[in-house]
Amino acid sequence: MTMVIATALDLADVGKQLGVQCRRIPRRAPLRSKLQALLMLLYSESGDVDLAALEAKLQALLQLPDSVLALLIQHPDLADLNEMLDAVFLGTSDLSGVNAELDKIDVTSVPGPSEKIDVVKVSGKPTYIVHSPAVQEGTDTAAGSLVSTRWTGDGDGGIPG
Question: Cα-flanking dihedrals φ and ψ of residue 130, to 5°?
Answer without folding.
Answer: -115, 125
